[in-house]
Amino acid sequence: MKSQDTPESGDISAEEFRKHLRAVADWIADYREQIAERPISPNAKPGAVLAQLDTRPPESGTPLDKIFADIDRVIVPGVAHWAHPQFMSYFGCTTTSPGILAEMITGALNVNAMTWRTAPAATELETLVLDWLRQWLGLPNEFNGVVYDTASISTMHALAVAREEAAPNTRKVGLSGRAELPVLRIYASDQAHSSVEKSAIAIGIGEENVRRVPSDSEFRMDVSALREMIARDLRQKFQPMAVVATVGTTSTASVDPVKKIVHLCREHKMWLHVDAAYGGGLALLPECKWVTDGWSDVDSLVINPHKMLFVPFDFSALYLREIDRLRRLFTLVPEYLHLRDPVGAEINYMDYGVQLGRRFRALKAWVIWRAFGRERLAAIIREHLRLAKLFAEWIENDDRFELAAPVVMGVVCFRFVAADETKIDKLNSDMVEWINASGRGYITQTKLRGHTVMRIGLGNILTTEEHLRNVWQIIQEAASRED
Ligand code: PLP
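Above: the input record for the complex with pyridoxal-5'-phosphate. Below: its predicted structure, written as tokens.
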């Protein structure tokens, strides 16, 4: 039986919806306005959130007021507030107010962008924002893209195409049992993201066949070492399949010498995929065009606008010079979709990957990029670069610390060194734990050449110099405890 104010459909009434929508709108605006006053991290033990919730599946409905009260009471205090301006882990946080508005509308539309027919505007907007981004990245006209959720998935699809090139017909017959096939190998620097191994696991290459190439003193792939590894593998009858070059590595944001790697890949007929998940965004700044060096000659490139270009999580764009190779690999149309396109004018993005159903991700990119324009996006990124350099100066002027890597983008790796050498790794790790537990700052630790270092990433539109000073203050407090 339906209650009196529940419409026949079973949904809540339009009136009730409007009431809650207003309340949620105010809640979001307040959250964003007052976020700096919140503790960043919940500092809770695993299971603490669950312990406060009813774990039985709901048999009958609960009023929304009660559910929203639980969100305030349990859920919100139980998250790490990525959007907090003093959250400086990973690459910072990418959400923006226009992005949040667009996400709300995406939720209301709830279209499935699998084919043009199921979502004409979602498909065409995807094509449009992909082309804007292509132009900003300076990729030649022949590059075309597709939007996925994450860089890991983008890289997996790029490497699946590379595998099909190296081992034709794998789509049809697979890799196993083919005596004629040598073992395929992928090369990536010792700084590359673990998504390369995950891709190799998923596409049947095997994680041991991802060869990690040493990096130089500035954490960039050493191309002569790559050349030697390929030559050695050829002598041992392996088949070099692909190189993944990184533009903006996860720990230090270093940039591999793509142009030199292009030559080597051409020489050996290998696929070159560029992981510009983070660093690609720098291409929007005219003074940083150096970052795109060699891109026009690569086979594929991934960029995550949810890392530097202010699109709320998630949005990853994969570009291929010949995107038809990707389409040929993955097109498989189930009967029930009834695709009829006599003139071939319909783009069906489901053809470009494993996924059938796809979120309407293009809307949020279109809204935020239109609302700001390239100039404003570039100005904010430029400010983050300035803050990163400023922070690096503070580190250099304090004897207790040293920089652990060159500052190339909005990322700074540094190390507390005022202690007995044998204790330094643990101290750095302990300091990060203490800073994060304070609720006033949130940073990351990583390992460089086997040593634990601290790391900040600047990417939040709300972060100002004052916020950075606050985090530096907390880091200094942590250091004073160890002096
Ligand atoms: N590539 C690089 C350079 C990264 O730093 C990361 C994650 O931080 C990834 C790939 C994986 O990104 P995603 O979470 O979108 O899969």
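Notes for the reader.
DSSP finds 14 helices and eleven strands in the chain.
The chain has two domains: 112-359, 369-482.
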